[in-house]
Amino acid sequence: MTEPVGVGIIGCGVIANAYAIKIRAFPHLELVSCADVLHDRASEFARAHDVGRSPTVDELLTDQDVSTVVNLTVPQAHVEVSAAAIAAGKSVYSEKPLGLERTEAASLVDGAAAAGVRLGCAPDTFMGAGLQTCRALIDDGAIGKPVAATAFMQSPGPESWHPRPQIFYALGGGPVFDMGPYYVTALVSLLGPVKRVAAMSKSGRSERVIGTGPDEGTTMAVEVPTHVAGVLEIGDGVVATMIMSFDVQATRHRWIEIQGTDATLAVPDPNTFGGRVQLRRRGSNEWTDVIVERPHADQSRGIGLADMAWAMRTGRAHRASGELASHCVDVMQALVESADDGRFIDLTSTCDRPAALPADLAEDVFDD
Ligand SMILES: NC(=O)c1ccc[n+]([C@@H]2O[C@H](COP(=O)([O-])OP(=O)(O)OC[C@H]3O[C@@H](n4cnc5c(N)ncnc54)[C@H](O)[C@@H]3O)[C@@H](O)[C@H]2O)c1
Predict the structure, then answer these.
(1) Average pLDDT, the chain
(2) 153 forms bridges with which residues in the sheet?
């Protein structure tokens, strides 16, 4: 093996902790530097995770030891930070969403290709044991021909647990852009790209109260729709029903189901890596548990980055790609636009389904 890929994190907030731990699990990655617009936060993060350097963002971008920038800033800063990193000649792996707007997301894909660097993006949960087991079942014909799907993310919203929840209710936030990436990416990985969408939306409340952190008790304005119900035509004509909501106090409709001509597949939470996979075949009165025996069943945020770094060495395409994420941004924007305009929207973007992961790989290996 050659030298590990040098990684620099920009954005040292909540999720950066999970990345720092996971990066350490891969010998082909090395976390060499971290930066944040709030310098103290980067210094503290460097101390907590034993990262050698915590320079300014600009200094990180000129660091020759950093070949790949992991962009863990807030969604509203993703495009600016990723574009600056690409301009500095770095490969980029961004947290989701890749951007808040389809033309910006597509321009990052084009910019990375022109610069000859890689662009990857979360979520990478579709590479986890649960969703890869579902993918293998569909690809092997276990449900027959996929006909329909349901995808439900219904919650009261993140302000009870996130210390800085304002981003979730500001423009560019909302359940579609925050949680939609998990569901849309999972559907595209399982069934193929989205062809057209229609949606309706509303906001249950115009203000929310922050439940924890430095601004606990403060009221914040809700600038985005917080309940979006859509229909999507996916892959080979599969009709999916999707609800993304921060207006639901309790529900019995969760996650994803794929309805096939021969069986229904119950897909685990696409915001996790493992989970319970179940099948119920035509004519059966029972759900059957499918054994999930694959790598990446536990918290594995960062495997998309690890796969990208692996692919940089072998020259193959990486799975959590900019093209996939850009298509997902297009789908999410179309859902919001359709709800605003009251019309179906045909998608102009598309992408390849990411390659399935072989079932029997070790945790730190990404190819046969
Ligand atoms: N928190 C989670 O559980 C979670 C889970 C999965 C994905 N994500 C995604 O991870 C990203 C970060 O979320 P978070 O919860 O860690 O947010 P956070 O607010 O805790 O952290 C974001 C950090 O980015 C920094 N930042 C903002 N703009 C910057 C800029 N222009 N340059 C440099 N630093 C900048 C902030 O100072 C902050 O430290 C988001 O895209 C979110 O969707 C979060």
Answers:
(1) 96
(2) 244
Does residue 49 carry a pLDDT above 70? yes
Residue 296 C-alpha to ligand 1 middle, in angstroms? Answer: 23
pLDDT at 1 over 80: no
How many beta carbons lie within 10 A of that of residue 289, not counting itself?
Answer: 11
Predicted confidence (pLDDT) per residue in 272-285, tens digit: 999 999 999 999 99
Distance (Å, whole) CA 224 – CA 312: 38
Q: Which residues, in sequence order, are bridge partners of residue 243?
A: 152, 229
Is any ligand 1 atom within 6 A of the Cβ of residue 75? Answer: yes
Read off the pLDDT of residues 100-159 as tens digits, 9 standing for 90 and up: 999 999 999 999 999 999 999 999 999 999 999 999 999 999 999 999 999 999 999 999
Distance 74 CA to ligand 1 centre (A): 4
Task: Report the amino acid identity of residue 348.
Answer: T
Residue 49: name the closest of 84, 68, 25 by CA.
25
Residue 127's closest CA among 257, 271, 296?
296
Q: Which residues contact 47 (CB under 8 A, 6 or more apart)?
A: none
What's the CA gap between 319 and 299, in Å, rounded?
18
d(CA 138, CA 341): 35
Nearest-CA residue for ligand 1 atom 18 is: 13
